[in-house]
Design a protein that fits this description.
Blueprint lengths: L1 H17 L3 H53 L8 E2 L3 E6 L25 E9 L5 E9 L12 H5 L4 E5 L1 E9 L8 E9 L14 E9 L5
Antiparallel strand pairs: 1-2, 2-3, 3-4, 4-5, 6-7, 7-8
């Protein structure tokens, strides 16, 4: 019995002194590498999914705020003050620096109060330094409303003191439908498309979001 214990002890000592074979070492390193690569891949996938989800949520939030703000401000203007191009729209606003809506004295001819236009509001989209189209808003003081504020060329827009509104604007368009009688309102359709260009290899690609609103424009005098 003692002889058997001595033999087993020698075998254990020999195994511990000889260590792992080359084949066992390669197998162990391979398994460890696969585990590490799998963990890295999972981490990157989670990070990319989180980044895309956050970008998509930001785009949805900004786009909704943008079209709701445009609707509110456009609904307060007159059809006679609106001018637009392929990437910009301008219109009159009667809101003063304090945010209050300014009115002229009551007109006994028109039987109503008339807005006292304080400024022109411009919405435009221009490419940013990062190559992403951005929606901007600007205000331009104006006192003479004999004509629309129609200086909507790109160089003029780039010189405006602009306020950032939203990212990832791919398209902005308008359809105007004049009223067929004085008793009805004119209608301006506003179309905004947000998203990114369709590059399947781009991990940051965002799906397109199409927003539209119908804005009634009253036939108010200037």
């Amino acid at each position: 019995m003692s002889r058997l214990k001595q033999i087993l002890a020698r075998m254990c000592n020999w195994r511990s002194e000889s260590g792992f074979s080359l084949f066992e070492t390669v197998i162990a390193l391979g398994v460890a590498s696969i585990s590490v690569l799998g963990a890295i891949g999972l981490t990157l996938a989670i990070e990319n999914n989180y980044r895309n989800s956050r970008s998509l949520a930001n785009m949805h939030g900004e786009s909704r705020i943008a079209i709701e703000r445009m609707f509110k401000e456009l609904s307060e203007t007159s059809n006679k003050t609106v001018a637009y191009t392929w990437n910009a729209i301008s219109f009159a606003s009667a809101r003063g620096a304090d945010g209050e809506f300014q009115l002229r004295p009551y007109s006994y001819v028109l039987k109503s109060h008339r807005p006292s236009w304080q400024k022109a509001i411009i919405y435009c989209y221009l490419p940013g330094e990062d190559g992403i189209n951005k929606l901007y808003r600007a205000e331009v003081p104006k006192t003479n409303w004999a004509s629309n504020y129609d200086d909507l060329d790109t160089p003029a827009l780039e010189e405006l003191n602009r306020e950032f509104v939203a990212n990832n604007l791919m398209y902005m368009g308008f359809d105007y439908y004049p009223a067929d009688s004085l008793a009805k309102a004119h209608v301006l359709n506003v179309f905004l498309d947000f998203g990114s260009f369709n590059h399947s290899e781009d991990p940051d690609e965002l799906p397109w979001v199409h927003l539209t609103t119908r804005v009634p424009l009253m036939n108010r005098t200037r």
